[in-house]
Amino acid sequence: MKKISLIPILFITSIISAQESVPHSDLSTYINPVFTDTSRITRIKAMIPVIDRIYRDYAQQKHFPAIAFGIVADNQLVYAGSYGKTDIAKDIAASPASLFRIASMTKSFTGMAILKLRDEGRLHLDDPAALYIPELKNISLLTTDAPPITLRNLLTHTAGFPEDNPWGDRQLDITDEEFSSMLKKGISFSNVPGIQYEYSNMGWAMLGRIITKVSGKPYQQYITDNILRPLGMSHTKWEYSRVSADKLAHGYRWENGNWKEEPLLHDGVYGAMGGLITSIEDFSKYMMLHLAAWPPRNENETGPLKRSSVREMQQALTFNNLNSSFSYDGHNTCSMVSGYGYGLRIGIDCNDRRYIGHTGGLPGFGSQWWIMPDYGIGVMAFGNLTYASMTAANYAVLDTLIRGAMLQKRSIPVSLVLQRRQAEIAALLPDWKNAAERKIFAVNFFEDHSLSQRKEKSQAIFAKAGKILRIENVIPENQLRGTFDIVCEYATIEVYFTLTPETPALVQYLDMELK
What we know:
There is one protein chain. By secondary structure, the protein is α+β, with helices and mostly antiparallel strands. Among the domains are: 9-99 and 278-404, Beta-lactamase; 416-514. The chain is 29% helix and 21% strand. The chain has 15 helices and 18 strands. The strands form 4 sheets. The protein has a 9-stranded antiparallel beta sheet, sandwiched between helices.
């Protein structure tokens, strides 16, 4: 990754931008209750000049005719920007309302439609795909012990099909009849189903056909009716010929120092893997839906898909890659592990930052979006250059936002049992008096480390730390695991403990260390 020039953050953080959020449909019912601090938005807006510069510099370095980008946080499109031309011949400037083909970013919409049909009881993810696509019944797999291809295999790129970029991109506009003819001729497999991730556009074309079969509607219409319209994505289209000329982004290739226009592809069967055409303004609403699935909570369901199913989409179900040389700044490495969910890529770096989203690439276009549910933010960027990669820019923007706007991870509420056990543990320290008689410890607790051993360690730690001055609140890792500090005269002691799955939950593990 090349280092991207940045306006110095210390200078920019003193700037409060007057930029207003781009209007969008009312999604107030999706608001994540954890992130309601208005100062967060103020700090994010203060970073807009930096963010704008990152994207503009990146677009110029990579020869994008145009780029459009946006920042989402706390149920808002906080900022949307653009640079360059969506139609060079007609000199049309890009805007946040410009409509770009987002290619494989479409896959998560297809995945969401499959899960919606699953939630309605109309299909099962472990159903054989041949149940819905008769042509697959006569397909010969690689080995006699190969299991049947399931819908889950198609969703996770584990059907055994070969990686098919860029061949699959050129299939975008084929008809249903042409697709059937292709399948009847047979499929060349690179592996047996279920054992290896390998990116397959063909698999997603099959999912589109399954949506059509089960719903009784063309997959485009089903997704439009059940996802796009409920979210207010009224400008998002499938077919470029239905987009007004002043809004349509044309695609280009950078060749011999000039931009060469790529022919626009009509929508077809492979649209399920990459056909959507949308804007920054529209796509932000979809990102808000994904962010609003967190945290799990007791609220009425208001989205087009249950929050639990959205979270299910976002789990890494197949391993994709380990990048041990990943870096945000081009210098300091921070390993990144990547996996694939249901139409979504998931990455976790060495600092436990979690990214969820997808890339997109077609002749004439490149795009990417990331959300970070733990931070309540997301970014997206669309370009109109063949296979334009937005990865470096989007990572740089998110890293800059977290550091420059001083964003913190979500803090989860403390469960009553965790609070109670913390108080009971603290009351025993430093000498563990009558600890054996207390009913708060699990059967393994004193068998793993005897009471005498625990007393000896405690005495040694408190001898260095001194008398207890105060007990800090417990910081939960989850509902049954947490850490709290004991502030003493000379040092602070960190106490880490976990509870059992039984009811009532008892202390099964505890450790103390000087900080």
